[in-house]
Amino acid sequence: MTERPTPEPLDPVVGARPAGSTHPAPPPIDRRAAFVGGVLLAIVGLLAAGLVALVVLERGGALPPAAATAAPAPPLDLVDQDGRPFSLDSLAGRPVLLFFGYTHCPDVCPTTVGVVTEALTAVGDGPRAVFTSIDPERDGVAEMKSYLRYLHPAFIGLSGTPTEVRAAADGWGVRYARIETGSAGGYAMAHTADTFLVDAQGRLRAVFPFGTEAAPIAAFLERLLAETPPPSEPPATPFSTAEPATPSPTLALATPAPSGAATPAPVTGDLLAMIVSSSVWSGGESPVIFRIADTAGTPLDGTTAIRARVVSVTDGSPAGPDVDAVAVRPPGETATSYVASLDFPSPGAWRIVLTASTGATGSVPVSVFDPGTTTPIGAPAPDVRTPTLDSVGGLALAVTTQPEPDLRLSRTSTADARAAGQPYVLVIDSVAFKVSPACGRALAMIRY
Q1: Could you report the per-residue pLDDT of 246-287, keeping only the tens digit for each?
Q2: Which CATH superfamily hosts domain 55-227?
């Protein structure tokens, strides 16, 4: 039997062997590097768990006070979506969220765009967002302008020559590389996905790693806005208007209806009800989404059965039969909604009477719209071909404005599904779709 040599003992210096050893010594362990590596692994683990929100450029995790010395942000001199020379200095006086990406990005960039949009919407006018392309071959002035028409009006899109883009990215410590994928889009880009926060004085105040949610970003924007109120002029570049985000409604008599809702707030009876549907239509069954609470304001949890009936606002006469409302609570939602498919005979003002299995009643007014030539439920669906990711070259924002899109919803055209005899769900998207109290939740319901 072959005898194994006895390992030689290590010296107290980590990684070193005794003097005169015939065995090659392994490289000494860099204790500092090991510590930093451990911290990075911990941060990565916490990010995966959604626990790390951001990295701030000051010890203690707080924004530096306005009087403190902070490093100036690197320069950024490129061309905007209108072909005009752009300098970061032109945004002095207001906070700026800045990130690098490319318009053909299928996942990371749309996610960052969505998160930044939610943060901007939460704080209102003032801040700007700068999206700098690291794909000069495909992203020129025209492409950036086309891309930005889907985004919040505070966005500015930058592009440049390969040399200019590389110099700008290097200044911000952003790395990127082209990856050949063989897909319809031709290639992808791997790139740094951090979002940078620059204050009104042009100082780099924070770096938000990819995965940071909108709420902490908005909180830091609010603090910078409090330090230096921004000028009141409108955005320098005209964009399509994005509908502001609306907080989820609470069930109280004084609570206003969500933006775009067809229903005013007043209710009557023992049940407090609010319609959260963005629109209700006449001419066939129209799904109406309710939030319902008892007289104490406690939301119903779905265990109480609810029936709904359409009545005239003038004399209370019924315009249709009682309909069972279905309780729904999509994954990720904390509140239960009720959905009733009601048939309104004509456009105009109506009232919906709600009756609970406990005997409690309530009613809520509703304004019903004329659907025009919209295909009614039960009729053959329109024979149209909707765009897919492949048909738009992998540009996710050409088919969805969802912050974290489920790309499964954009793989198949309605025409192909129809030809294959497959059922399908068609969601009509818009620039403000993801923040609408009703429509934003519709995507979650469809995904699950």
Answers
A1: 333 333 333 333 333 333 333 345 888 888 876 888 888 888
A2: Glutaredoxin (3.40.30.10)
The answer to which of 59-63, 81-85, 272-276, 316-320 has the lowest mean pLDDT is 59-63
Work out the widest C-alpha separation in the chain, in whole angstroms.
Answer: 105
Q: Provide the 3-class DSSP secondary structure of residue 178.
A: strand
178 vs 3, more confident:
178
Token digits for 428? 């009509």
Fill in the amino acid letter for 172: W
User: pLDDT by residue (tens digit) across 191-211?
Assistant: 999 999 999 999 999 999 888
For residue 143, what is the enclosing H or E element?
helix 141-148
Strands 96-101 and 128-133: parallel
Residue pair 251/274 in contact (Cβ under 8 Å)? The answer is: yes
CATH class, 268-368 region: mainly beta
How many CA atoms, within 13 angstroms, populate the side-chain half-sphere of residue 46? Answer: 13
Q: Which of 336, 313, 311, 312 is nearest to 323 (CA)?
A: 311
Q: What is the pLDDT of residue 331?
A: 61
Q: Where in the chain is the domain with CATH 3.40.30.10?
A: 55-227
The DSSP 8-state label assigned to residue 299 in this structure reads B
How far is 306 from 361, CA to CA, in rounded Å? Answer: 9
Q: Are 62 and 70 in contact (CB under 8 A)?
A: no
Q: Quick check: 49 and 213 in contact, CB under 8 A?
A: no
368: which 2 tokens?
Answer: 């019903």
Helix (H, G, I), strand (E, B) or coil at 443: helix
Q: What is the edge-to-edge ordering of all strands in the sheet holding 272-275?
A: 268-269, 361-368, 348-356, 306-311, 323-328, 337-343, 285-293, 272-275
pLDDT band of 180, cuts 50, 70, 90? confident
Is the separation of the CB atoms in 295 and 251 below 8 Å? no
- State the span(s) of the chain assigned CATH 2.60.40.10: 268-368
pLDDT in tens, 409-429: 788 898 899 889 888 877 765
- pLDDT averaged over the chain? 75
Neighbours of 88 (CB within 10 A): 21
How far apart, in whole angstroms, are the C-alpha atoms of residue 293 and residue 360? 11
